Amino acid sequence: MRTPPSFIHAIEFSAFGEWMRSNVLAMPWVNAAHVLCVTLVFGTILVVDLRLLGLLDRHRSVTRTADELLHLTWAAFAGAAISGALFFSANATTYWFNTAFRFKMLAIVLAGLNMAVFQFVTYRGVARWDRNEPPPRAAKLAAGLSILLWATVLVLGRLIGFTKGFDVAVPDNIDFDFGAP
Amino acid sequence: MSLLEIAKAIDSTSLSTSIKTISWIVPLVQCFHILMVGVVFVSILMLSLRVLGRARTDEPLAMTWSRFAPFLWGGIVVLIITGVLLVISEPVRELMALSFRLKMLLLAIGIVSAAVFGRRVRAEVAVAGSEPLVSGGMRMASVATLVLWVAIIILGRTIAYDDSVWGSWSPAVLQRGGAL
């Protein structure tokens, strides 16, 4: 088995990691919370993206559609990050070497970058295309990328559960409990 | 014929065997399932928030309904198709889980109540030709609906942990004579 950086080892043997592994109800509840949060993140972002693509809700302003959901999206993202961190602590070494996990983190970073570029460049001129006007090409591009990237995040997240022992040699009789696929 | 026998019968069908043999089918089906959970859950959420006056108050309720109903029903159809495939692939694990049975019960209630809600919104619009009145009862019902769908999602995830969540209440545990 490969050795991870020492901070990964520290996370795995932190109080959080120990708690996740020792409490038989921790994994199901944290798992359920994670699923609730990621579906909320994906679904609320999808509503805003479909407006940005100009496909739906054309009678409503972009800002109104985005503003009424933004706090919910962020709260759900925070919940997903916290529950995800707890997962990670339970089996930090295995996650660290897991390819699906690494690609998932990359997809989250890319989705974040896409969001930042949209927020600080395209969205600045939103007053011009907030209503009626078809959204500019840059906004449509950001929305399309956003749907694609967040769907990828969910798909890779689900696939982690099927890649147990794929990147790290895991003896068959040891259950690392990746969340029972 | 007990549920366990039905489950075992499904398990021995050629369709079940094919799904199990081709390793990428279950992960792929689960990916579609989870994406559609997001679509359906947020459609319910948006309708509930509209009824509660917390979102989309700039449009009539009937408009919010017609905006999200296709996503709600389309999503539910995909969830049922993918869900049936997942049950066929692992019938004993699913049918012998208390979480699964409770989920199916709540799902039936959720689907019927969404249909009733949609009918009512459309009926009121047809009669009055205007905004349906959001009553206190409708507000209560929308909160109950949200709780219901949250429970459905949680139960969906806890199928995998039926032993640890339900202990001796789990049919699978009972089947084994109560051994955890």
The overall pLDDT of chain A, averaged over residues, is 89
One letter per element, helices H and strands E, the order of chain B comes to HHHHHHHHH
Rg of chain B is 19 Å
Element string of chain A (H = helix, E = strand): HHHHHHHH
Task: Report the helical percentage of chain A.
Answer: 55-70%
**Most residues in contact, chain pair and counts:** A-B, 33 and 31 residues
Fraction of residues in β-strands of chain B: under 5%
Quick one: how many beta strands of chain B?
Answer: 0
**Number of DSSP strands of chain A?**
0
Shape of chain B: elongated
Low-confidence stretches of chain A: 165-181
Number of domains of chain B: 1
Largest sheet of chain A: none
Individual helix count of chain A: 8
The end-to-end span of chain B amounts to 25 Å
Mean pLDDT score of chain B:
92
Q: Round the Cα radius of gyration of chain A to an integer and report it.
A: 19 Å
Structural class of chain A: mainly alpha
Explain what you see.
- Chain A is mainly alpha-helical and 181 residues long.
- Chain A has one domain.
- In chain A, 70% of the residues lie in helices and 0% in strands.
- Chain A contains eight helices and no strands.
- Chain A has helices at residues 6-12, 15-22, 26-52, 62-90, 92-96, 99-120, 126-129, 137-160.
- In chain A, α2 (15-22) packs across α4 (62-90), α3 packs antiparallel against α8 (137-160) and α6 (99-120) runs antiparallel to α8.
- The two termini of chain A are 23 Å apart.
- In chain A, 38% of the residues are buried.
- Chain B has one domain (3-175).
- Chain B is elongated and about 55 Å long.
- In chain B, 79% of the residues lie in helices and 0% in strands.
- Chain B has helices at residues 3-11, 14-21, 25-51, 61-89, 91-95, 98-128, 136-158, 162-166, 171-175.
- With 180 residues, chain B is mainly α.
- Chain A binds chain B through residues 24-25, 27-28, 31-32, 35-36, 38-44, 46-47, 56-57, 59-60, 64, 68-69, 151, 154-155, 158-159, 162, 179-181, and chain B through 26-27, 30-31, 34-35, 37-39, 41-43, 45-46, 54-56, 58-59, 63, 67, 150, 153-154, 156-158, 160-161, 164-165.
